Amino acid sequence: MIILLAGSTPIVRSAVAEKIVSESDTWRHLAIEDLAETARTNENGQEYDEETLLAIVCQCAKTMQNDGYHLILSLSDVTNLSRMIRGSIEGDSLALYLGVPDAEVMNDFDHIIDTKTRSINDIYEFLRPLIDDPPDA
Hints:
Elements: E1 2-7, H1 10-23, E2 27-31, H2 32-38, H3 50-66, E3 70-75, H4 80-88, E4 93-98, E5 111-113, H5 120-132
Parallel strand pairs: 1-3, 1-4, 2-3, 4-5
Helix pairs in contact: 1-5, 3-4
């Protein structure tokens, strides 16, 4: 199972992911924005494009799933990369937008949670049934 967290701020996305990871030993978190920053250039100084980043994320997800873990992927980008990830990851997934998205991306997410009116604990409780009993990958 993979949960895609998008929107809001890195602090909110990280807090939600860390709450899940701390409560369940079968979940791991990969902050794609951190990966993108770290992997911005390779040894030859070439910049990574979205397709390369997508390949890295998909390989990480596959490795985690093969090791028996479920994965939370968090990213700020809600346009092209999030759509590409959702279309490329194998297994069950849930896309959650934290905040209030633009109308153009609303249909790209399974659930939208307004972080101005919901706390980290509210978000965790909303996801808890899925976290406690995720579908097999």
